[in-house]
Amino acid sequence: MTISDSLYGQDIPFIFPDWSGLPSSIRAVSTLRDGGVSQGVYGAASGGGLNLGDHVADDPVAVEYNRKKINRLLPSDVIFLSQVHGNIAVNSNNLRPGLEADAVVSSQPGKVCAVLTADCLPVLFSDVTGRVVAAAHAGWRGLAAGILQNTVDQMRSQGAGEILAWLGPAIGPAQFEVGQDVFNAFVSVNENTANCFLEKRSSSQIKYLADIYGLAGKLLTGAGVTKIFGGQYCTVSEPEKFYSYRRDGVTGRMASMIWIEPDQ
């Protein structure tokens, strides 16, 4: 049984990204809220929840169990970043627990790149040769600050050729209400992002519905990444599948992960 085979036929449901052109040496998955032992607001309709966030007031024993359950299926234990909604992308060689960054890039076979989300956008990357992969956590602040562009730059510095991107489960455009500050933050960087906002006027103020998938697509295209996949989920609208901070406030975190198979 190979590493990838171990992800099938077990009791953890995964999303397996569907992106054409992905090299056979690359594996990528995104977890759902089901499949673990977390309880209460961190649980799932069918039982225990697979909360992987250790910073959200869940029982630490449950989180440790959930993480160990995931790690048993992977070629290396996941070292999660301390995500700060910034624009720093780090080399996986420098990974250590508690490292503050919002993306990790690797050219090491067997090294898992991972980010945690619950409405923010997880983006997984691979170059077409299968030499470099990356995972990025892209909330609106990180997007506006350039986290995706910095991830692409870091990949290219490690020898990446043409890059593919997959947009994982995030808050959908019908649910992501934002203010004028968010609109201004994007349009001041890239005026082409204006059409990713739908204006909602009230008697007192202007609000917008923001398309985080559309924003990511515009920014990736501007960075030279044109093969973009995914973007069909809404974490807020699908409570049976996903944790959502905006919907629930206190909630768990899902992981999106990618790696180069070590036996290729």
From TrEMBL:
Per the record, the domain of life is Bacteria
InterPro entries under this entry? Cu_polyphenol_OxRdtase, Cu_polyphenol_OxRdtase_sf, Cytotoxic_necrot_fac-like_cat
Q: What is the name listed in the Swiss-Prot or TrEMBL entry for this protein?
A: Purine nucleoside phosphorylase
Catalytic reaction list: adenosine + phosphate = alpha-D-ribose 1-phosphate + adenine; S-methyl-5'-thioadenosine + phosphate = 5-(methylsulfanyl)-alpha-D-ribose 1-phosphate + adenine; adenosine + H2O + H(+) = inosine + NH4(+); inosine + phosphate = alpha-D-ribose 1-phosphate + hypoxanthine
**Homology family:** Belongs to the purine nucleoside phosphorylase YfiH/LACC1 family.
- The residue ranges crossing the membrane are none
Taxonomic classification: Bacteria, Pseudomonadati, Pseudomonadota, Betaproteobacteria, Burkholderiales
- Return the CDD domains for the record: YfiH
Instruction: Give the UniProt keywords, A-Z.
Output: Hydrolase, Metal-binding, Transferase, Zinc
Whichever gene encodes this chain, its name is pgeF
What is the source species?
A: Undibacterium griseum
Does the record carry Hydrolase as a key word? Answer: yes
On whether Cell inner membrane is a keyword of this UniProt record, the answer is no
